[in-house]
TrEMBL record:
This is APC family permease. Its main location: membrane. It comes from the Bacteria. PANTHER family: AMINO ACID TRANSPORTER-RELATED, MEMBRANE PROTEIN. Keywords: Cell membrane, Membrane, Transmembrane, Transmembrane helix. The chain crosses the membrane at residues 49-69, 90-112, 143-162, 174-194, 206-228, 249-270, 290-311, 346-366, 372-393, 414-436, 448-470. The keyword Ribosomal protein does not apply.
Length: 504
């Protein structure tokens, strides 16, 4: 039996997590190994040998966003985080949009990670000498094969997520330890022994080929950091809400270190053409350049573990976000049903897995795995930038009184999030414009600008349609009661033992 929504006490989740669990969930969601193994090659195709520069630049606005998350989480820990915060501080319409685009973006991310997982498994099978199965030649570059294998893995990790977030966090912790040991070992060895000389120009953002390349590279890099906020989606399941803020910050700083390490190591070992030309198989190629089999397979195993963990950590925060939205009756009641046995939104978790599976199947219309990855990453980068920017503006609006009361705190709570938001909105807008002007017709292709622009446009437009349905058909109190009007964070929202945190 499950706790029933829309009647009696609001459904609640069990508080079982600590800081380490939050870090495991957020780090798995960010998926540093996957981002290094795939994202670096894609980004190098845009900015050339300036990966460290672009990763550092992208970190600055994301750091401002992380500060906004932490401060908002102190005064109002909520599984819906941005959906709730933006709705309260700005307007319910934009709040709903944040919740909606995060759901849609994560489902798209799960769909492409499903194929990445399948590709890693098929590459490992090839390394082990298994090239045919039942007369079918196994091809790591086949979108159909990689998606089919990945869907099996997605089903397994979804079932694990249903049984409890603590169980999932423990599994992710074990996978992360292996991943990071392999990454540190191979990247450290690559930095010491790589044939290409180190150059300070790698850290020079002014050497990036063009403004368009800079904007696209920054969006791709912001996408690599995307996921640290997963720590805030379980803030109703941590024993102390402040642990979610600590976990998010620890994860973000760790990701910066890993991305810089990976960027320098890849550029020491691989040429620009090798970096940009191996796409989804970049980490495996990197391993083969540094070691012979079977050691060369370790980075590929780490990539597989990262993909598996990120599949599971993608399902978990999305189900929590939809739980919070269902609790407000902006989504149907099935999403806020809590399993009496496991204390998780079990039905919603299973449905998220099913939705991602359906989208992965639809993605088969794009013939090559690289096309699917590029199209999805570009689309998600724009909507993630929009979502992060709105949350930062919500923090600036809510804490704007600090500019009068304490200028130093006001700069941290209002000015820095606002600057970060403007930067991300500017990047997203510039990239959207460059996509629009780069083509004169629509074509389902990863290098067609109209196609790349259509995907985030559909995500955003569908959010406003769904918001209208929630307001006028479901008559959700999220809209009817005007929750988005008190921009200065009313006192009752601040937990009694954290009242002094409001001004910190």
């Amino acid at each position: 039996m499950s706790q029933q929504p829309y009647g009696g006490d609001p459904p609640s989740l069990r508080r079982t997590l600590g800081v380490v669990d939050g870090v495991a969930i957020a780090a798995s969601s960010t998926a540093a190994t996957t981002s290094i193994g795939i994202g670096l090659g894609v980004t190098a195709g845009v900015v050339g040998l300036h990966l460290p520069a672009i990763m550092l630049l992208a970190f600055l606005p994301v750091l401002g966003i992380a500060g906004a998350y932490s401060r908002l989480n102190r005064v109002e820990p909520n599984a819906g985080n941005g959906y709730t915060w933006v709705g309260r501080s700005l307007t319910p319409w934009l709040g709903f949009l944040v919740g909606w685009v995060n759901i849609v973006a994560t489902v798209a991310f799960l769909a492409y990670t499903t194929a990445v997982t399948g590709s890693a498994m098929l590459q490992l099978a090839g390394d082990a000498g298994l090239h045919d199965l039942g007369g079918l030649r196994l091809d790591p570059g086949s979108t159909a094969q990689t998606t089919a294998v990945g869907i099996v893995v997605l089903a397994a990790v979804t079932l694990t997520a249903v049984t409890g977030v603590r169980t999932a966090a423990r599994l992710q912790s074990a996978l992360l330890v292996f991943e990071y040991v392999v990454l540190l070992g191979f990247c450290g060895y690559g930095i010491v022994t790589g044939p290409h000389p180190f150059s300070l120009s790698w850290f020079d953002p002014f050497a990036i080929p063009s403004t368009t390349a800079l904007a696209q590279g920054l969006l791709l890099s912001v996408f690599c950091y995307w996921g640290f906020d997963a720590a805030f989606t379980v803030n109703e399941e941590v024993r102390d809400p402040r642990d979610a803020s600590r976990a998010g910050t620890i994860t973000l700083v760790t990701m910066l270190g890993l991305f810089l390490l990976g960027s320098v190591a890849f550029q020491r070992v691989l040429s620009e053409q090798e970096l940009a030309g191996h796409g989804a198989e970049g980490l495996a190629f990197f391993g083969e350049r540094l070691a012979a089999q079977p050691l060369a397979a370790l980075p590929l195993v780490a990539l597989l573990f990262s993909a598996v963990a990120s599949l599971q950590s993608g399902v978990i925060p999305t189900a929590r976000g939809m739980f919070a939205m269902s609790r407000d009756r902006t989504l149907g009641p099935v999403w806020s049903r809590v399993s009496a046995r496991y204390g998780t939104p079990a039905a919603g978790t299973l449905l998220i897995g099913a939705l991602a599976t359906a989208v992965a199947g639809l993605a088969l219309v794009i013939p090559r795995l690289a096309d699917m990855i590029m199209a999805t990453v570009n689309a998600v980068g724009i909507v993630v930038a929009l979502s992060y920017a709105l949350i930062a503006l919500a923090a600036a609006a809510r804490f704007r009184a600090l500019l009068r009361e304490d200028l130093r705190q006001g700069i941290r709570a209002v000015v820095l999030p606002t600057v970060s938001a403007v930067a991300l909105l500017g990047l997203g807008g510039y990239l959207a414009y460059s996509f629009y002007t780069s083509a004169d017709h629509l074509e389902v292709s990863a290098d067609n600008g109209w196609f790349l622009l259509l995907t985030p446009t559909v995500m955003i437009a569908s959010g406003f349609v769904a918001a209208a349905w929630a307001k006028w058909v479901r008559r959700s109190p999220y809209f009817v009661t005007g929750l988005g009007t008190d921009a200065d964070a009313p006192g009752p929202l601040i937990p009694s033992d954290q009242g002094t945190e409001h001004a910190r």
